[in-house]
């Protein structure tokens, strides 16, 4: 067995070994009347074929150094060709986990009520209506004054978006256009004001990686790294695959020695340090997460697989084990063990409600941090005005 929570956690001088596989092993030993001795593989791996020979626990079975191997042993085609397996007693999916997206900065929260596309359409609408209004105002006049009137008209259109008044147009054609422009402005401003306060107080989170295609795009465009346990069954899935997306992920895994780790905890730690996605079984990775609020599991998955007991090639009592495992599995006992162990692990202070989440249910008084976007816009305006003033001074002198 090898350390693999929640299946197996080695004991020490005070605590005995524990985990769902230890409980399973104890029941099998009691019901089938055998004793056992725990051994750990020298290379601390479950086992893979390196092109020449088997490694890890599978090697110990092939060499008859052990009769059975478990602690979250994944059933794969390569392993199945070398050793025997019991029926699966638990199922999992290979997915990836990343650091939970950070909150968006509040500096530009005043622009978030509308998307960039909407802001572009609003700007084009102001320009288009300004041109049309200038033409309507001067329909029967000389075009010489168009340039000056366009500047004033564009300013009037912009003022209408800010709920400011407009000049008293005498032409019926201009009044009709202004009436519909005001309806447009009221609609746009109402939608903006309705969302602005919520974005200023709680701007939300940056986009997360939920699918394999998003992960591949992040690898190609943002130098995002991917990793898993070295020489594990998860790594074998990518090594043996011919799919383009999985080959891209494999290249990322092999591009940096830090990407291939020895344990789930090491992979989770890498997620917090840099732009890194850790690939593993959701069940086992979730069991090693010390604070669920720090990580996010993808909705997509690479593969579904089962956990089973691996036996030496000459082991002749697999049917007895299968019968007892099936009884425990049908009763939901093994799954209940795993759930209880994971809950106990995460209950140790990690499931407390975050202070920021508590504040979301209370009245929020806006602070300087919430309205910093307005000050940022003012600062940009002052900077541009100062630069233009300096340029005009240089021109006139």
Automatic annotation (TrEMBL):
Domain Ionotropic glutamate receptor L-glutamate and glycine-binding: 6-63
UniProt main location, coarse: membrane
Coiled coil spans: none
GO molecular function annotation: ligand-gated monoatomic ion channel activity
Pfam families the record matches: Lig_chan, Lig_chan-Glu_bd
Cellular localization per UniProt: Cell membrane
Ionotropic glutamate receptor C-terminal domain segment(s): 1-340
Membrane topology, record value: Multi-pass membrane protein
Keyword vocabulary terms for this entry: Cell membrane, Glycoprotein, Ion channel, Ion transport, Ligand-gated ion channel, Membrane, Receptor, Transmembrane, Transmembrane helix, Transport
Alphabetical GO biological process terms: detection of stimulus involved in sensory perception
GO cellular component, as recorded: plasma membrane
Stretches that traverse the bilayer: 109-133, 176-201
Gene3D superfamilies the UniProt entry points to: 1.10.287.70, Periplasmic binding protein-like II (3.40.190.10)
Protein family membership: Belongs to the glutamate-gated ion channel (TC 1.A.10.1) family.
PANTHER family the record matches: IONOTROPIC RECEPTOR 20A-RELATED (PTHR42643), IONOTROPIC RECEPTOR 60A (PTHR42643:SF24)
Name of the protein this chain belongs to: Glutamate receptor ionotropic, delta-1
Native source species: Trichonephila clavata (Joro spider)
Lineage per the UniProt record: Eukaryota, Metazoa, Ecdysozoa, Arthropoda, Chelicerata
């Amino acid at each position: 067995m090898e350390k693999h929570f929640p299946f197996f956690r080695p004991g020490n001088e005070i605590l005995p070994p524990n985990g769902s596989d230890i409980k399973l092993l104890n029941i099998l030993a009691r019901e089938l009347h055998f004793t056992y001795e725990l051994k750990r593989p020298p290379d601390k791996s479950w086992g893979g074929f390196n092109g020449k020979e088997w490694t890890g626990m599978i090697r110990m079975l092939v060499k008859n150094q052990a009769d059975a191997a478990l602690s979250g042993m994944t059933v794969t085609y390569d392993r199945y060709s070398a050793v025997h397996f019991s029926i699966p007693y638990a199922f999992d999916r290979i997915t990836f986990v990343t650091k939970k997206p950070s909150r968006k900065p509040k500096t530009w929260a005043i622009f978030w009520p509308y998307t960039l596309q909407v802001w572009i359409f609003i700007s084009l609408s102001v320009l288009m209506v300004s041109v049309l209004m200038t033409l309507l105002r001067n329909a029967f006049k000389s075009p010489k004054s168009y340039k000056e009137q366009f500047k004033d008209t564009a300013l009037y259109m912009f003022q209408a978006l800010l709920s400011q008044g407009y000049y008293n147009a005498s032409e019926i054609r201009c009044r009709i256009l202004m009436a519909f422009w005001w309806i447009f402005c009221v609609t746009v401003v109402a939608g903006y004001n309705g969302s602005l306060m919520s974005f200023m107080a709680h701007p939300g989170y940056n986009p997360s990686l939920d699918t394999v295609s998003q992960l591949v795009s992040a690898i190609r465009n943002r130098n995002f790294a991917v990793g898993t346990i070295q020489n594990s069954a998860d790594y074998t899935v990518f090594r043996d695959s011919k799919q383009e997306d999985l080959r891209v992920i494999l290249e990322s895994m092999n591009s940096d020695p830090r990407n291939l780790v020895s344990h789930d905890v090491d992979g989770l730690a890498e997620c917090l340090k840099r732009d890194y996605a850790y690939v593993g079984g959701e069940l086992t990775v979730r069991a090693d997460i010390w604070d669920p609020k720090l990580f996010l599991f993808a909705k997509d998955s690479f593969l579904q697989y089962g956990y089973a007991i691996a036996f030496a090639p000459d082991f002749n009592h697999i049917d007895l084990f299968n019968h007892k495992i099936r009884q425990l599995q049908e009763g939901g006992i093994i799954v209940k063990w795993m759930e209880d162990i994971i809950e106990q692990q995460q209950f140790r202070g990690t499931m407390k409600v975050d202070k920021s989440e508590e504040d979301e249910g209370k009245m929020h008084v806006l602070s300087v941090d919430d309205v910093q976007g307005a000050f940022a816009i003012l600062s940009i305006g002052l900077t541009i005005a100062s630069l233009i003033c300096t340029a005009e001074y240089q021109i006139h002198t």
